[in-house]
Amino acid sequence: MSEDQKIITEVTESDYKWGFISDIESDQAPKGLNEEVIRFISLKKKEPSWLLEWRLKAYRHWLTMEEPTWPNVHYPKIDFNDIIYYSAPKAKPVLNSLDELDPEIKATFDKLGISLEEQKRLSGVAVDAVIDSVSVKTTFREALGELGIIFCSFSEAVQEHPELVKQYIGSVVPSTDNYYAALNSAVFSDGSFCYIPKGVRCPMELSTYFRINSAGTGQFERTLIVAEEGAYVSYLEGCTAPMRDENQLHAAVVEIYAHQDAQVKYSTVQNWYPGDKEGKGGIYNFVTKRGLCYGKHSKISWTQVETGSAITWKYPSVILKGDHSIGEFYSVAVTNNFQQADTGTKMIHLGKNTRSTIISKGISGGKSQNSYRGLVRISRKADQARNFSQCDSLLLGDKCGAHTFPYLEVNNKTAIVEHEATTSKVGEDQIFYCNQRGISTEDAVGLIVNGYCKEVFNQLPMEFAVEAQKLLAISLEGSVG
Amino acid sequence: MNTAYQHTGTENFVRAFAEFSKENGRILPELNTIAIGRLEDIGFPTTRHEEWKYTNVSPILNTAFSHPGPQFRLKKEDIQSWMLAGKDAILLVFENGYLNTDLSSLDGLPEKVIIASLSAQRSNAIVKQHLAKYAPMKQESFVVLNTAFVSDGAFIYLPANIQIEKPVHVLYVNDSEFHPTVIYPRNLIVADKNASVKVAVSYHSIGSTNAGFTNAVTEVVAGQNAQVELIKIQNENESAFHISHTEAILSKDSVFNISTITLGGKIVRNNLHIVLSETNSVAHLYGLYITDGNQLVDNHTLVDHMSPNCESNELYKGVLGGKSSGVFNGKVFVRQDAQKTNAYQSNKNILLSDEATMNTKPQLEIFADDVKCSHGATTGQMDAEALFYLRSRGIGEQEAKAFLNIAFAADVIKNISIEALRDRLMPLIENKLKQSIQS
Questions:
Q1: In terms of Cα–Cα distance, which of B381, B231, B383, B376 is closest to B319?
Q2: Least crowded by CB within 10 Å, which of A3, A231, A294, B207?
Q3: How big is chain A by its Cα radius of gyration, in Å?
Q4: Closest B-chain CA to A427
């Protein structure tokens, strides 16, 4: 076995380090999906009737839709009636301090290495911790409240700010948008809501830790971020999930609405259970994320580091409606073993002088398949629109695949659209250079891969950049020092 | 329900087949019948079909075409302006899909080289061995359609170790002056070990209002160390429909160069599949499309790297004016065994008008790790500074634009190795560019 192959084998054999199951009693809905279950969820969450109607409308539309088959991923057909659509951890209804938190949940977070106290004291990150479907803890709420910033769980927002929820829900991702978005709209259990008022610059990074917990529970999160005129927010989302044999479905929806001059930066590190070395188990991650640059000079930036999930199907998009608005997409997607990722972005240029940048780095190892699928559309009226896309793929084995499916649709002559893509492996001469400087092959691969992802990691907030590098190290264990 | 295929228009072709099947001397009578059956099964692609997303073929399916058979009326002077490969070229002229021997000239052919019509050579063992063996019949409706109606076309065969310098020109004329006419050209080019040949295939039409339909299939087989150059020129009238498929199979150490030049036509679709089946084979793909009015030009290329150490290099350029639209879909497929592959792909487009559209999809699918693959795609307008420079030197706006676009197009044309063809092609291109700039 050559040195390279050995490293690759080691990579494929590294175990999922965050796998454990917390024993928390769940308040569950019966298995299966029908109007009764949706009414149950809505009732359980004490929702107003308009929201129930909205859910039912989405459900009725979902029934008429077909499961998409176009992504470059393969998996056994999902039985949507074999899923529990609502499960709430048993927790006290209202929490005023961290002490009231269920000790089990607290321990879970501690194992993940995100002690809330530490986060609170040291890093200044407000954490809205979500276990399964109900938000259990929100920190720094009061500090944010003084600025008029609303950062709470989705169900709280429904109770406390129904007018805002009603105004913005479905405004970016309509309930009928696609198969999984419709499903989410019908059964979404909880999520985060974030509202930044006019002219306010959010003083800290807002963060949510998602965690799928109860066995056989599909998690249907819904996040809504609204930035009013001139507002700024940086939002972080990170995920780890316990080890399971059964595939778990995750179909989240994230909507971002940016008014004039507003800026929203959304960063994700996704490290859900990718399945074992034989490709058994792992999360199905079918997510709809979309931002709308509604006002002039608004900006939405997506940064994602995708290392987990058995199957990832995710295209964070930006609709550039306002003139001079900006959309950005930075992504690192790592697949290993039998993971499949079909991810990318859509940049829809509608306004004049709109700009978008796409930087996508795919790394595939083991027997995984990694696809970039992106759309850049310049509409007829988007004068002087500008796009630059770069999609690079790195192959770390001879049994994996890297695919690029970019769609460039240009309908305006003043637009400038550029797309570049490369596929290569880690250069032998680069490794040789490191070797002869006394750096082991393993360390060299680590250096090179980290350097390759630098462009994206640089976009992440500091705490996240550190975590992202750690994740990369775990995902590529054996080849990264 | 499968919405990617439709059955509109199939009955027209099935009816036409009843007539066609009575013709004597067909090249592939058995295969014709299988193909029409296949066509009845699958029908034609709709825009729901991923490979036909931007190209709606309904206008073709809704036209009733006549299928004239071997009737000739062309005179020598009619084809003068189409003699693109020069007067010395070996020439095969096909009128409405059938060889017009009076206009063709096959002087100075080296021994054992065969350049003839497929129908005349239908019992040839090489034809039997290769014809209709490569172009995919499974899902490609228009290859199936061509196979059902295959009537005639060029057969070019070079035995081992023979190189011919003289270009071969295969000239197709679709006579749609009185009726919309459909023709089904089928070409087979076989170059054995160490052989070399340069072939230009051009498509023209008579009449400017009727929508003729040319449904062509070309198969190229390059033997070990063979060199084949193919230049496909489409210059039919602006109502014409043109759907072609070119399939090339490359053996060890062979080189295949292809240039696809599209100037005319209302709906044009060029499918190009290149299979690098053995080691060290090299393919160069060049393409140029210049459009105006309501033209739609769709280029789909697929380079299939099946073996190690192969190289492919692709450059497609487009200039789009008026309300025209262009499609480029370039797929590079690198199989698991194809280590040490080098694959490059580039697509550059200029939009001249507010209503022109370009849809580009460069696609890489890679299953081997030791490869160098890259692609680039750009769409934009002419460089404003370059334009300003020329104008500051006293060159009028229209002329300056023409200069820049000619230079842009020449980048593709310069790769054609037949000088006579380049010389005759450039004026056509300049002319078309001027139309496109004004539209």
A1: B381
A2: A3
A3: 22
A4: B370
Q: CB under 8 Å to B47, separation ≥6 — which residues?
A: B53, B54, B55, B56
Return residues 296-335 of B near A (CB < 8 Å): 334
Among A354, A359, A363, smallest CA distance to A383 is for A354
Q: Band of the pLDDT at A239, cuts 50, 70, 90?
A: low
Cα separation, B279 vs A235, whole angstroms:
51
Which of B260, B262, B273 lies closest to B229, judged by CA? Answer: B260
CB contact under 8 A, A410 and B359: yes
Return the axis-axis angle of helices A49-63 and A179-187, rounded to nearest 10°: 150
The pLDDT > 90 percentage for chain A reads 28
Q: What is the pLDDT of residue B25?
A: 80
Which residues does chain B have with pLDDT short of 50? Answer: 1
Identify the CA nearest to A165 among candidates A195, A144, A121. Answer: A195
Q: What is the pLDDT of residue B87?
A: 85
Q: Which residues pair with B359 in a beta bridge?
A: A409, B327
A151 or B182: which carries more pLDDT confidence? B182
Rounded to whole angstroms, what are the CA distances from A154 to A84, A89, A266, B221, B265? 20, 16, 17, 63, 56
Strands (E), B223-324: 227-234, 241-250, 255-262, 267-276, 282-291, 296-305, 311-320
User: CA of B356: which chain A residue's CA is closest?
Assistant: A411
- The pLDDT value recorded for residue A214 is 46
Average confidence score pLDDT of chain A: 79
- The amino acid sitting at B69 is G
CB A322, CB A293: distance < 8 Å: yes
Write out pLDDT tens, residues B192-213: 999 999 999 999 999 888 889 9
CA A373 to chain B, closest CA, distance in angstroms equals: 9
At residue A3, the pLDDT reads 57
Q: What is the pTM of this model?
A: 0.83
Closest CA of chain A from B358, distance in Å: 5
Torsion A53-A54-A59-A61 (CA) sign: positive
Nearest partner of A95 among A61, A68, A131, judged by Cα: A131
Q: Is B346 on the interface with A (CB under 8 A)?
A: no
What distances in angstroms separate CA A266 from CA A207, A339, A464, B371, one per listed residue? Answer: 10, 24, 12, 34
Is the Cβ of B336 closer than 8 Å to some Cβ of chain A? yes
- Check CB contact of B353 with chain A, cutoff 8 Å: yes
Q: Which of A352, A404, A405 would best serve as a mutation to test chain B binding (most B beta carbons within 10 A)?
A: A404
Q: d(Cα A138, Cα A98) in Å, to the nearest integer?
A: 9
